[in-house]
């Protein structure tokens, strides 16, 4: 009832869409009665006919998302989508907010619009117990995450699995923590549908007027256990003795209607019987199509996924049955043809010029003036460092029409002060972003400092990347190990969503990594954890060793299809190491090399004479440590090969890099 009234109000106001995130309880009800999915589709999928091309292992039916049209009163309608979610109940919260923000950014009305409304459905135990809920609420009024207000509906069963409220929270109401953020809360008896309907209308009007979050706390109960086969009376005997004595909500409301004379008892019975008969008929027909009917050749082709090429970017995401695919996930959306990762020299120079083209009235910090001047000089003479190489990648993409969103903890300056993408007037504090002034028709750039959070923040950027296939979405951790706080998002979405739901994302995770002798914290980004999660080409894992390699990696990732997440272990010491700088020519030619072979002429000459007896394979900063030591001792018998891409491991590129070094007695080892 609450969702129906919310969407009806949204449809009457002409909102473009409502995006819903919820757990699996009641999900089939929402799919059919709100999202417009037919009962036949649901039954068909439960018979095993629901397949999405691009999905590998699949998932249970009540985790799947959908898109549809909600039909309201007076003939109005609005688009509605239900986000796919895992069993980690509240993980979907940030994902939904990111999807909504991406849709709003594409519409382009800014704060004047907010014509896509997010709705999050929570359980009472999860709302009070999961910290990601509070993170998401806290994000609601921040510039990087604002979506014009979310309507939260708490299905308050007064129990969490088997845990009672006295053991689940330290507050009277499950929603009390939201009071600290001044979020209005409506507590309503869920056994009174008409009051629920009026409350939903008030909540919608609050969101429409103030563009802020609002909460509906539906006080109700769970008649059965955590699932249909669970007996809750074993742990809550008193509660369920009371519940068993109560009539259902439908029974209570039917009695009220009969008592008011709105319907007769016979009419109420006929309505219920007609609905049950209709379900039985549709279920029988769906079953017959599977077991009793002859499958046509066309149907056989659509259900045979083994012969289809999932590496073809024009095929990934094509629905093979009734499972609906969002627009952003449809084949070919956001794909560009004829791209190259290298850029013309004048593009590099234009980005360099922008670094020093601040307005006359703008007062640049004295310490930054010299750095910005060196950036411009480097775009002519070479010596491009990590920060500038990244800006050239982003700036060139903007000039080619690719919208970019970069958000992270201290992302505008960067943790190690290498980026300085946004400058601050030393006198007034006003901001100026050089990359916003490259060409008149460039794509928009959003670069924000995030709240000090990882869980909800990474979920938001993941959702944004799913919905914005034509753009580049990047999330940066302050230190690589900070991503540990978002492990549920990494496990349930970043690494596995394509396999479970056929949901593609091009999210880039930037994780600063480097053992710099500062102790265990903030040193390792835990490369091994990500490699353990690699399978079925689910993501790319890279550790570039030069600014130019990083530049090509970002540009190729933006345009490559099918989309998949990119995990980049970014450096610390290399940010300003002269030996790690790149010449301009490395940006105007070439491509990303998953493997970089030996580059020292003396070592290559020794290899020709079969005098190389050892080859070291390494990645990242350790290359420069090995190189410095080799130079110091004058060793030409040891070659060094760099792995720039750790997964998928390019065996042919490794073999090609080793070929000229193994003419004699060279041994290969890793470092």
SSE blueprint:
Elements: H1 2-12, E1 17-22, H2 27-33, H3 39-46, E2 66-71, E3 77-82, H4 92-107, E4 116-123, H5 124-129, H6 131-139, E5 151-156, E6 159-160, E7 163-164, H7 165-168, E8 185-189, H8 193-210, E9 214-219, H9 237-244, H10 249-260, H11 265-291, H12 297-303, H13 345-354, H14 366-381, H15 386-399, E10 404-408, E11 423-424, E12 431-432, E13 445-449, H16 455-467, E14 472-476, H17 487-494, H18 497-501, E15 508-512, H19 527-532, E16 540-542, H20 547-559, E17 566-570, H21 585-588, E18 595-596, H22 601-608, E19 614-618, H23 622-633, E20 638-643, E21 645-647, H24 651-658, E22 667-670
Parallel strand pairs: 1-3, 1-4, 4-5, 5-9, 8-9, 10-13, 10-14, 14-15, 15-17, 16-17, 19-20, 19-22
Antiparallel strand pairs: 2-3, 6-7, 11-12, 16-21, 18-20
Helix pairs in contact: 1-8, 3-11, 4-16, 13-14, 13-15, 15-20, 16-17
Explain what you see.
The structure is a single chain. 37% of the residues lie in helices and 15% in strands. It contains 24 helices and 22 strands. The model is unreliable at 294-322 (pLDDT under 50). The N and C termini lie far apart (62 Å). 42% of the residues are buried. By secondary structure, it is of the alpha/beta class. Strands 2-3-1-4-5-9-8 form a seven-stranded mixed β-sheet, sandwiched between helices.
Q: Helical element count?
A: 24
DSSP helix fraction: 25-40%
**Poorly predicted runs of 5 or more residues:** 294-322
Beta strand %: 5-15%
Structure keywords:
seven-stranded mixed beta sheet, 671 residues, alpha/beta, 24 helices, 37% helix
């Amino acid at each position: 009832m609450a969702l129906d009234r919310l969407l009806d109000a949204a449809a009457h106001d002409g909102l473009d869409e409502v995006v819903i995130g919820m757990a699996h309880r009641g999900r089939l009800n929402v799919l059919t009665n709100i999202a417009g999915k037919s009962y036949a589709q649901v039954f068909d999928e439960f018979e095993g006919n629901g397949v999405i091309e691009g999905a590998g292992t699949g998932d249970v039916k009540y985790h799947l998302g959908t898109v549809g049209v909600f039909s309201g009163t007076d003939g109005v309608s609005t688009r509605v989508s239900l986000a796919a979610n895992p069993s980690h109940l509240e993980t979907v919260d940030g994902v939904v907010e990111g999807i909504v923000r991406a849709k709003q950014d594409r519409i382009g009305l800014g704060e004047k619009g907010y014509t896509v409304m997010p709705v999050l459905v929570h359980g009472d135990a999860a709302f009070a117990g999961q910290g990601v809920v509070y993170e998401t609420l806290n994000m609601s009024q921040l510039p990087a995450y604002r979506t014009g207000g979310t309507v939260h509906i708490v299905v308050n069963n007064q129990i969490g699995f088997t845990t009672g409220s006295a053991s689940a929270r330290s507050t009277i109401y499950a929603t009390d923590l939201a009071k600290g953020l001044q979020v209005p809360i409506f507590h309503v008896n869920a056994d009174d549908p008409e009051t629920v309907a009026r409350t939903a209308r008030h909540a919608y009007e609050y969101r429409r007027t103030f563009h802020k979050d609002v909460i509906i706390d539906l006080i109700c109960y769970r008649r059965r256990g955590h699932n249909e086969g669970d007996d809750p009376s074993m742990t809550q005997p008193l509660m369920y003795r009371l519940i068993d004595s109560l009539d259902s909500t439908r029974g209570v409301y039917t009695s009220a209607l009969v008592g008011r004379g709105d319907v007769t008892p016979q009419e109420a019975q006929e309505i219920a019987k007609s609905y049950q008969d209709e379900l039985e008929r549709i279920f029988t027909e769906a079953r017959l199509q599977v077991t009793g009917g002859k499958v046509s050749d066309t149907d056989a082709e659509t259900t045979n996924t083994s012969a289809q090429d999932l590496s073809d970017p024009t095929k990934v995401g094509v629905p093979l049955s009734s499972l609906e695919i969002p627009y952003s996930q449809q084949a070919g959306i956001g794909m560009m043809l004829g791209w190259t990762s290298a850029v013309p020299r004048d593009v590099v120079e234009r980005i360099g010029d922008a670094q020093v083209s601040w307005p006359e009235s703008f007062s640049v910090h004295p310490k930054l003036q010299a750095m910005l001047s060196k950036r411009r000089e480097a775009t002519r003479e070479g010596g491009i460092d990590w920060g500038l190489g990244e800006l050239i990648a982003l700036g060139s993409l903007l000039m080619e029409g690719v919208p970019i969103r970069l958000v992270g903890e201290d992302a505008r300056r960067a943790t190690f002060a290498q980026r300085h993408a946004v400058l601050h007037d030393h006198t007034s504090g006003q901001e100026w972003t050089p990359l916003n002034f490259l060409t008149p028709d460039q794509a928009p750039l959003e670069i924000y400092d995030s709240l000090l959070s990882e869980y909800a923040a990474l979920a938001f950027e993941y959702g944004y990347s799913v919905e914005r296939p034509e753009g580049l979405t990047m999330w940066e951790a302050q230190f690589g190990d900070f991503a540990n706080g978002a492990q549920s998002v990494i496990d349930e979405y970043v690494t596995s969503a394509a396999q479970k739901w056929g949901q593609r994302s091009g999210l880039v995770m930037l994780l600063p990594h480097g053992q710099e002798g500062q102790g265990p914290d903030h040193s390792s980004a835990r490369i091994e954890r990500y490699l353990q999660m690699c399978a079925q080409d689910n993501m790319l894992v890279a550790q570039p060793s030069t600014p130019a390699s990083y530049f090509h990696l970002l540009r190729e990732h933006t345009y490559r299809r099918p989309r998949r997440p990119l995990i980049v272990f970014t450096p610390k010491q290399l940010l300003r190491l002269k030996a790690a700088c790149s010449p301009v020519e490395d940006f105007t030619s070439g491509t990303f090399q998953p493997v970089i072979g030996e580059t020292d002429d003396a070592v290559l000459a020794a290899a020709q004479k079969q005098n190389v007896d050892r080859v070291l394979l390494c990645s990242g900063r350790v290359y420069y440590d090995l190189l410095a030591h080799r130079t110091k001792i004058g060793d030409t018998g040891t070659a060094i090969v760099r792995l720039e891409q750790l997964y998928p491991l390019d065996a042919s590129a490794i073999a090609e890099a080793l070929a000229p070094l193994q003419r004699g007695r060279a041994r290969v080892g890793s470092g």
